[in-house]
Amino acid sequence: MHGWIPVTAQVLAAVALVLAVGLRMRTRRWWLLSMPVAAAVGVGLALFARSYISSGGYAGDPAPRGLWIWTALTGLAAVVLVAGWPGSRWWRRAAAVCAVPLCLLSAGLALNLWVGYFPTVQTAWSQLTAGPLPDQTDEGTVSALAATAARTKTLPARGSVLKVDIPADGSGFRHRDELVYLPPAWFGSVPAPALPTVMMIGGEFNTPGDWLRTGAAIETVDAFAAAHDGNAPVLVFVDSGGQFNNDTECVNGPRGRAADHLVNDVRPYLISRFQVSAAAANWGVAGWSMGGTCAVDLVTMHPDKFSAFENIAGDIAPNAGTPEQTLRRLYNGDRAAAASFDPATVMSRHGRYAGISGRFDVNGTSRTAHGPAIINAAAGTLPGASDQLLAAQTLCGLGRANGIDCAVVEQPGRHDWPYAAAAFKASLPWLAGVLGTPGVDRVPVGYSEVTPDPAPRPVEAAGR
């Protein structure tokens, strides 16, 4: 989706729009009235979209100019279709009909280049048609695999992904089906071994399957398990929003009791249903963008239930727009509630932690002669640091002051899903080790077995 497809769509859209507008055989009224109206509508639509995204706090970095250009051209094309229909020849009407969806498609592709949500056409098709997820299977197959492993003393070559409907008795939070990855080692004994677990949280707009389809998490963890005799953490891909565009920031508030769902519904269910370890030392949270903020929040708020977090390009605190908008949207104006979910406030109030560690992966370009920069939060702020880097340095510095073993790792890349996938791949050896995965050595928090090498991005690509 970063290659010839966006360019082809844009060329076709431009050709159709030029034919629809008609550089020749148009009246004076067309150029003096219709086209200025079309241009005004297009510009207004682009300004509205930009204002909506900015006011909603939907992006951490500026959008590419192409998004606004194609949004404006979509509005222009719609007016040209309506205003130019009377008296036009059939081929010009056909061009006008084609121009609207082609301009809209070009705007959508520009948006995708920003956030990296669909890295390939196959991923997009699988998502839009609700196709099977990597390693997805059913209860019957899992039971058969467990029986075969017990009989033959041989682990399956790959893990299994199950869709689960977790009761919301502890929260009342309305959510979609969630997903659980069981590594090959889970099938090694009856009852299943008490493996560590990582809660996986996506970005602001998300489905529970995003980490699997777009974040390549299953490919990453299967490869990790294959290199460690089938051992890897159990992964649970949670629903933090209840619907695609419900930005809860994993807090309890008017958008739902998301925090209670993750802590009081998901965790007990995994322990009961899949016999994973109940010890806080064996539970971690990994999240991307909004999910990264959630990861820090959940672990620092509940050190009796979690012991490690992987924050990939998260914010300094839950964020749903400006501070005033965030306070209203997430907490109904309750400042005490907002403070209770602010990681800096939570750490300061808690004081000294024991046995807690965390890693902040931040997209950027700072590198040393030996690879990506491992940033000591106490060393101060780097010149030109991004908001995410400043947030990571601030929170890690405060965490260190309160006994949390943490590191800030800056890797090259954009604030998009391909970067999130690469960062998770780089951090998994540390995360699996610190959570006590059998057969996995514990490594320093800043360690990366591989250096993320994100897929090529357009020059202007970003997104929260």
From TrEMBL:
<dbReference type="InterPro" id="IPR000801">
    <property type="entry name" value="Esterase-like"/>
</dbReference>
<feature type="transmembrane region" description="Helical">
    <location>
        <begin position="94"/>
        <end position="117"/>
    </location>
</feature>
<dbReference type="InterPro" id="IPR050583">
    <property type="entry name" value="Mycobacterial_A85_antigen"/>
</dbReference>
<dbReference type="InterPro" id="IPR029058">
    <property type="entry name" value="AB_hydrolase_fold"/>
</dbReference>
<keyword id="KW-0472">Membrane</keyword>
<dbReference type="Pfam" id="PF00756">
    <property type="entry name" value="Esterase"/>
</dbReference>
<feature type="transmembrane region" description="Helical">
    <location>
        <begin position="6"/>
        <end position="23"/>
    </location>
</feature>
<feature type="transmembrane region" description="Helical">
    <location>
        <begin position="30"/>
        <end position="48"/>
    </location>
</feature>
<dbReference type="GO" id="GO:0016747">
    <property type="term" value="F:acyltransferase activity, transferring groups other than amino-acyl groups"/>
</dbReference>
<feature type="transmembrane region" description="Helical">
    <location>
        <begin position="68"/>
        <end position="87"/>
    </location>
</feature>
<protein>
    <recommendedName>
        <fullName>Esterase</fullName>
    </recommendedName>
</protein>
<keyword id="KW-0964">Secreted</keyword>
<keyword id="KW-1133">Transmembrane helix</keyword>
<dbReference type="GO" id="GO:0005576">
    <property type="term" value="C:extracellular region"/>
</dbReference>
<keyword id="KW-0812">Transmembrane</keyword>
